[in-house]
Fold these 4 entries.
Entry 1:
Amino acid sequence: VQLVEFGGGLVQPGGSLRLSCAASGFPFSSVTMRWYRQAPEKERVWVATIRSVGGSTDYADSVKGRFTISRDNAKNTVYLQMNSLKVEDTAVYLCHAYVDRVNYWGQGTQVTVSS
């Protein structure tokens, strides 16, 4: 299993970024995918989920209405569109898959929101 995130960077408050996570090594279309984030010296927290069946989504209250998770099963990729970014969104963003009772994480991509 491999998860590779990209698309992070430096953005001003109010700006947008689109993160991608390319997955391989497992039946992607059958697995629920999640995004988490971890700010410096803080615990890793859940951000968003997109289910394998039906593609329903859930969001943490802190990002609801600003972030959108989506997936392209043909490309084995999950996305996180982040709009109206705030300074407090600064963190390393990681994608997650639970496969065969094992938690897998990517290496993360840094998102910095600063003026």
Entry 2:
Amino acid sequence: QWLVAESGGGLVQSGGSLKLSCGASGFNLDRSAIGWFRQDPGKPGKEREGVACIRGNDGTTYYADSAKGRFAISRDNAENTVYLQMNSLKVEDTGTYYCAAEGRDSYYSGIDYYSRINHYDYWGQGTQVTVSS
């Protein structure tokens, strides 16, 4: 059974940093893309926003424009964990962060594909990130 679980959320001041972790079990990270998504708490009806993704087969990374230059996605195959290092955090980064596994070895390019939630089959429960001003 494929499972992913997030950790590392918390409360941080604007300009600060957080590092989120996504632990995977039941599969190896080189078999699936892993994406990080943010759910805006003020807009519960809005679709989760894709923030960053790392492709399984070759580790290629993609970022939403809002994350470029501030966030970094990486993985540790030995720990079977994907990380999201978030720096220079802004109030608008506040939300519940989810990691998701695509569930297949894909070779698509670009954040447009990997930010679509319907491409992901396995989701964690989310971790809350709150950035205060």
Entry 3:
Amino acid sequence: QVQLVESGGGLVQPGGSLRLSCAASRSISDVRRVGWYRQAQGKQRELVAAIGSGGTTTYDDSVKGRFTISRDNAKNTVYLQMVSLKPEDTAVYYCYYYRNFPSWGQGTQVTVSS
């Protein structure tokens, strides 16, 4: 079972930036998929961005051009750089890791508000 530890969440004003990090206890270089989901209050959890086994990236349409997912295989860490944040980006962000089955981090709160 992999352990995932997220960090980097917080309160930011609209238009601001944050970088989320997810440190995994196992290798991320050969997993099927690793990435980020988010869940806003009262809504279902949704995919934000992910990296597949071949390095292909996927983004939700609502974050394209504003969010960038990346990974450092040497550190077993996945990042989500978020710029031009909007109030609708407010949610708990969860790291996601899929090798043979899905694993989730504990989540980190991102609040975009003036």
Entry 4:
Amino acid sequence: QVQLVESGGGSVQAGGSLRLSCAASGDTRSSMCMGWFRQPPGKEREGVAAIHTGADDTRYADSVKGRFTISQDNAKNTIYLQMDNLKPEDTAMYYCAARKWCFTLQSVLRDGVVSPTEFPDWGQGTQVTVSS
């Protein structure tokens, strides 16, 4: 099992930026897929971005392409989500998730979208609020 701790959420005005961090601990020896998800109030959890830690392959939801960037620091077992040009519709609880023994990023996609059902390990979440 992988333990995940997110940080970096907060409140910003539209057009601002935030960087989320997700530190992984525990059994991180295998190739992993890691992802960022978000859940606005009253809505379903959706995939935002994902990365394969071994191949550095990435995927993004259409709604964040060109504004969000997922990256990793393998030495720190940490992934990041740089969020620029934030919009009020980005307001949500953001979660980090991981899947061990993940050999390709394709394996966590469903219909081309990062699927939360493919990730067994989750962090506690961090709130992002964007005001207009």
